[in-house]
Specification:
Layout: H1 3-31, H2 34-58, H3 69-82, H4 84-88, H5 91-108, H6 114-135
């Protein structure tokens, strides 16, 4: 698959997972289901991962160097030190915040406040949108 096709695929996946996260959250909130709310958080986290993969590929990182969360964090940190747009958007901090709040605290530890999960879903969506805008200027 060509680089641009991979980037488009990751963005498409990010959008799909973000949408699924909101749907699952609504179901979970209505049913007061801990499992559905935690699953919604994990779907939003996956959306962030997919968008991050798209950004890093678009900025020239080889796919085999961004397979783990650690590799993505390091790549974002490196990119932020070189790319003012990435730095201005605080993508490294935002990635870390979503990882901690959605993936670690909510999904794994079950530690959350429902309204804050909803806020984090919106923040994940904004992260994806910012990356999509950045990728529009990548050749």
């Amino acid at each position: 698959m060509a680089r641009q096709d991979k980037i488009a695929h990751y963005i498409s996946e990010a959008r799909k997972f973000a949408e699924a996260a909101f749907e699952e959250f609504e179901k979970g909130e209505g049913a007061q289901s801990d499992v559905l709310i935690r699953d919604a958080a994990e779907k939003a986290w996956n959306a962030v991962l997919q968008a991050t993969n798209a950004l890093l590929l678009g900025k020239g990182f080889p796919e085999e160097k961004i397979r783990s969360h650690r590799e993505r964090r390091l790549a974002l940190d490196s990119l932020e030190s070189k790319d003012p747009q990435v730095k201005d958007k605080g993508l490294s901090d935002r990635f870390g915040a979503r990882e901690h709040r959605l993936h670690e605290r909510c999904f794994y530890e079950g530690e959350y406040i429902t309204e804050k999960v909803k806020d984090d879903l919106w923040k994940a969506k904004a992260y994806i949108e910012d990356i999509e805008k950045m990728l529009q200027t990548v050749p």
